[in-house]
Design goal:
By secondary structure, this protein is mainly alpha-helical. It is about 85% helix and about 0% strand. α1 (about 10-40) packs antiparallel against α2 and α1 packs parallel to α3 (about 70-95). It starts with 7 loop residues before the first helix and ends with a helix. The mean pLDDT is about 90. It has helices at about 10-40, 45-70, 70-95. The protein is elongated. The chain has one domain (about 15-95). The longest helix is centred in the N-terminal third of the chain and has 32 residues, at about 10-40.
Amino acid sequence: MATLTQTPWHIVSRVSAGLLGSYVFTWGFVALLATALLSAGLKFHEATDLAYMLAFLVFLGALCFAFIAARLARVWLVLVGGGTVMTLIGWWLSRSLA
């Protein structure tokens, strides 16, 4: 079995991906879910409260994913890329509701 050596840069990047990437991913999840629930007919505060309650679990899952995934590039792509895409879809959906 090969030994795994990690440079300080790799560790800093993994921790940054875990914290910042999970935040971006969770933000996108909240934006998309709250907007989708609003468009489904829920009241504003009910939609945002539900999205915020689920956001804790999403953040925890994304943070665990950041440290479990084998490839660091995949972590950045999934968390930051997925969060950005969800945020943009939520923004577009909120503009189409108005």
